[in-house]
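R.M. (postdoc): so does anyone remember the format we settled on? I'll just put the C-alpha cells first.
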C-alpha cells in the first residue's frame, strides 16, 4: 500500500480494499516508528487526522469521493491549518495555533484529503538544508548523516521514507525542487500566482510559491489540480480558467512520445559548478530524452550567474518587511522579562528568531535603507528583469530547459552550516526560476554514491501540464523514481 500511487490509493479506497481510517492509521504508525530518527514531522494530531479520515470514509460510502478523498497528506509547517500548531520552524511561532486554514489547506480539505501532520522546515523557509529549524535538523532517509535539502526538508524526508503518500512544500528560491532532488522525489514549483499564498506564512512575497512534493509526476499533477486556482484573498493570485494538469499524461504515444519537443541546454547549466557525478547523470537523462524523441538545442542564459546575488538582495528585503509583524504583541513568542514596550519588542525578536533569520533581516533592512536602496535593491530588480528576458529569449528557441536541480547530492549535516555563502550556492540552478516567476520541476535521474540526484525541467509561464508530461514520459521509461531508502521498510 505504501508504494501505491495516489491514483491507486484512490481506487483502493473506492473499492473498499482499505478505509481512510486504516490508511491514515498505517501512516501514523509509521510516523510513530520512524519519525524519532528523521525529525520530519513537527506535529501529528492523530485524533484530528482520524476524525477527518472518518468523515472521508462516510463521504466515500455515499459515493461522493473525488481523487483525493480519504488520502492523508503532510503539510509543510508554513501553511496555517485551523486548530493546528503552525510554527514555520521558528521559536517565534512555537506557540501559535492557527485560527484559520490557508487556501491550500482549505482546498485539500474540500477535496476530502486528510491532514496527516505538519512537517519540519528551515526557519521561515530560509535555508537549503533544514538545519535552521528551531526544532532541530531533519535527516535524509537515504543517509541519516546527511541533510534532506531545504527548506521543505521535512516534507521531502517524510515522503521519501514513506511516512506520507505525498506532501506540500513552498519554493522561494528552490525549496521544493532541491529537497526533491536530494530525497529522490518529484517536486514542482508552479508559475508564480497559480497557487494562492493566502495563509502561507510569507518569506519573500514576490518569489514564494507553493507546490507539490510526491513520488511521481503523475502524483504531482493530481496534487496541483487541487492546489491551484484563483483566490481573491491573494492579490497576486491569477484569475485563469481551471485546468487539468494531468491532461497530457494519458495521451497515447508511441516509442517516441516526445517527438517534436525542443529541449534547451543552457551553457550556464552545463559548465563548471556542478559535481561531475551529478553532471554524468544529467547528461544520461538528456540522452534518454533524445531516445524519447526530443531534440536538443544549445542555448544561453547570460545573466544567470547574477541570480544568487540578486536573490540575496530581493529575498531579504521582502523578508525584513514581512517579518516586521512578529513583535510579541498579538501572537507568537514574547520574551518573559522586559523593561518597557521597546525592550519587549527587542527581546522578543532577539530570542524568537534564529541566526539565519536575523542575518536576512539585517541585510534586507540595509538594502532598503535610504542611500543604499538605489545601489542594491533597484540594481537587483534590474538584474531580475534581465534574467526574465534571458528566459523569454530562450523560450523562443526551445520548449523546455533542462539542467541539474542542485550542484551536488545531499551534503553532510554541518558541512555548510557555518558558511552561508556556500549554503546559498546550493541554489544556483533553481533561484533564477523564482526570480522570473516560471514553473520548474525536479525529478529523480539516478544515484551517485548511493545518493539521489535531481534533473530540473523549466518551462515557460503556465506550461505546468507540459512539464509534468515531459517528466512523466521519462518516468515511464526509467525506474529511478521508484527507488526507496532501504532503512525505512
Ligand atoms: N535556500 C534559499 C534560501 O535560503 C531558498 C529557500 C526557499 O526556497 N524557501 O532563501
Amino acid at each position: 500500500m505504501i508504494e501505491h500511487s495516489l491514483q491507486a490509493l484512490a481506487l483502493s479506497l473506492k473499492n473498499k480494499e482499505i478505509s481512510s481510517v486504516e490508511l491514515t492509521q498505517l501512516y501514523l504508525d509509521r510516523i510513530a516508528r520512524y519519525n524519532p530518527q528523521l525529525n520530519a514531522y513537527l506535529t501529528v494530531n492523530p485524533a484530528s487526522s482520524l476524525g477527518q479520515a472518518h468523515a472521508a470514509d462516510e463521504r466515500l460510502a455515499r459515493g461522493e469521493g473525488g481523487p483525493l478523498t480519504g488520502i492523508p497528506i503532510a503539510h509543510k509547517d508554513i501553511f496555517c491549518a485551523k486548530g493546528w500548531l503552525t510554527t514555520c520552524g521558528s521559536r517565534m511561532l512555537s506557540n501559535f495555533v492557527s485560527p484559520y486554514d490557508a487556501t491550500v489547506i482549505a482546498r485539500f480539505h474540500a477535496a476530502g484529503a486528510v491532514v496527516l501532520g505538519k512537517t519540519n522546515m528551515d526557519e521561515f523557509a530560509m535555508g537549503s538544508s533544514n538545519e535552521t529549524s528551531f526544532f532541530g535538523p531533519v535527516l535524509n532517509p537515504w543517509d541519516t548523516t546527511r541533510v534532506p535539502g531545504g527548506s521543505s526538508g521535512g516534507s521531502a524526508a517524510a515522503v521519501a521514507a514513506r511516512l506520507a503518500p505525498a506532501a506540500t512544500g513552498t519554493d522561494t528560491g528552490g525549496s521544493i525542487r532541491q529537497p526533491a532532488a536530494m530525497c529522490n522525489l518529484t517536486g514542482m514549483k508552479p508559475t508564480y500566482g497559480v497557487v494562492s499564498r493566502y495563509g502561507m506564512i510569507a518569506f519573500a512575497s514576490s518569489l514564494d510559491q507553493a507546490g507539490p512534493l510526491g513520488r511521481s509526476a503523475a502524483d504531482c499533477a493530481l496534487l496541483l489540480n487541487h492546489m491551484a486556482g484563483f483566490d481573491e484573498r491573494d492579490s497576486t493570485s491569477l484569475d485563469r480558467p481551471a485546468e487539468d494538469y494531468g491532461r497530457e499524461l494519458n495521451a497515447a504515444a508511441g516509442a517516441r512520445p516526445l517527438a517534436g519537443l525542443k529541449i534547451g541546454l543552457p551553457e550556464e547549466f552545463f559548465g563548471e559548478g556542478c559535481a561531475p557525478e551529478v553532471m554524468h547523470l544529467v547528461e544520461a537523462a538528456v540522452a534518454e530524452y533524445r531516445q524519447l524523441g526530443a531534440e536538443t538545442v544549445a542555448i544561453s542564459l547570460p545573466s544567470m550567474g547574477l541570480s544568487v546575488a540578486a536573490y540575496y538582495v530581493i529575498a531579504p528585503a521582502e523578508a525584513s518587511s514581512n517579518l516586521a509583524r512578529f513583535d510579541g504583541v498579538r501572537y507568537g513568542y514574547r520574551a518573559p522579562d522586559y523593561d518597557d514596550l521597546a525592550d519587549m519588542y527587542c527581546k522578543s525578536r532577539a530570542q524568537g528568531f534564529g541566526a539565519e533569520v536575523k542575518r536576512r533581516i539585517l541585510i534586507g533592512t540595509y538594502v532598503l535603507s535610504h542611500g543604499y536602496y538605489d545601489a542594491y535593491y533597484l540594481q537587483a530588480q534590474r538584474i531580475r528583469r534581465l534574467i526574465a528576458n534571458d528566459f523569454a529569449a530562450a523560450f523562443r528557441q526551445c520548449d523546455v530547459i533542462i539542467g541539474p536541480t542542485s550542484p551536488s547530492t545531499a551534503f553532510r549535516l554541518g558541512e555548510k552550516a557555518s558558511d552561508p555563502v556556500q549554503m546559498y550556492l546550493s541554489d544556483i540552478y533553481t533561484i533564477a526560476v523564482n526570480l522570473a516567476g516560471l514553473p520548474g520541476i525536479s525529478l529523480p535521474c539516478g544515484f551517485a554514491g548511493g545518493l539521489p540526484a535531481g534533473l530540473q525541467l523549466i518551462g515557460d509561464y503556465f506550461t505546468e501540464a507540459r512539464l509534468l508530461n515531459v517528466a512523466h514520459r521519462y518516468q515511464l521509461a526509467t525506474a529511478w523514481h521508484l527507488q526507496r531508502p532501504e532503512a525505512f521498510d
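R.M.: ...and that's the designed sequence above, right after the C-alpha cells. Also worth knowing: Residues 305-382 form one domain. Residues 373-394 form the longest helix (22 residues).
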